[in-house]
Specification:
Layout (H helix, E strand, L loop, with lengths): L1 H34 L11 H12 L2 H10 L3 H6 L18 H25 L1 H5 L5 H11 L12 E10 L6 E10 L5 E2 L3 E6 L5 E7 L1 H4 L9 E2 L4 E9 L7 E5 L3
Antiparallel strand pairs: 1-2, 2-7, 3-6, 4-5, 4-8
Length: about 250
């Protein structure tokens, strides 16, 4: 009997728990429903409605007036000479073939090279006056056959150790010894020399110009170029101008 009573009590407790659960479930549903936000129905217009609305706006009085001014009648367009037609045709020149372009370019380069070669040929002396251009313009003249005159700077030639005395073998004659020095960095032709005699008043009593063949003797007779920075001894002979010639001067005429 005690077991039966316990079973009955357990059944009663289970029934009470089930009833309590059934009472709690509706309350939870009401709470959840209360917390949900309200649904708002939004109706979007379809495509047909949007097109009809746009057409109604385009057909407004102001739009119709603007279109009338933008698109004038055909007879007005024909009568107005200042009207610009909307349809414009552009004409592009035909493309030139590349072969002609390369041909003209090649001919232009050849003509420029020919002009440059002619300029160097006829003005080789002027260009060669600069010692810096002397080497390459000399090689060009060797190939082209142009003549290049030697460099010459008379300001770089000086005389020294001038001595005048009576000639030992010829009466009434004088002998002149001097030394020429080429102070330039390049060889240059022997210059002409002028010997002048003056009296006490500075008046010129006698003067003579000597060419290289007249003052180069012995081993120097065959030389045409003065070596750079080397002294060259020379000897001159002339008639004695007399006892009044007390001063003399040897110089290179410019």
């Amino acid at each position: 009997q005690e077991q039966e009573q316990e079973q009955e009590q357990e059944q009663e407790q289970e029934q009470e728990q089930e009833q309590e659960q059934e009472q709690d479930e509706p309350e939870a549903e009401t709470v959840i429903q209360a917390r949900l936000p309200e649904q708002i129905d939004i109706h979007w217009p379809d495509s047909a409605t949007a097109e009809s609305t746009q057409q109604s706006e385009d057909n407004s009085p102001t739009e119709r007036a603007g279109k009338a001014t933008e698109n004038p009648p055909q007879d007005v367009v024909e009568d107005n000479p200042l009207h610009l037609q909307s349809d414009t045709t552009l004409f592009y020149p035909p493309a030139r073939p590349r072969r002609k372009t390369w041909l003209w370019l090649t001919l232009s380069l050849l003509a420029s090279a020919l002009l440059a070669a002619q300029y160097l040929y006829f003005f080789a002396d002027v260009i060669g006056e600069d010692p810096g251009n002397r080497q390459w313009i000399g090689r060009y003249c060797e190939v082209a056959g142009c003549e290049l005159s030697p460099l010459q700077d008379l300001n770089k030639i000086s005389s020294d150790q001038l001595m005048v005395y009576s000639h030992p073998d010829i009466p009434d004659a004088l002998s002149v010894d001097a030394v020429l020095i080429n102070e330039a960095s390049f060889a240059q032709p022997f210059p002409s020399l002028v010997l002048r005699f003056e009296n006490l008043q500075g008046e010129i009593l006698a003067q003579r110009r000597f060419q290289p063949k007249e003052y180069l003797h012995g081993d120097l007779a065959d030389m045409t170029m003065m070596p750079a920075r080397q002294p060259v001894k020379l000897k001159l002979e002339l008639i004695d101008p007399g006892q009044d010639a007390v001063s003399y001067l040897l110089f290179i005429p410019k």
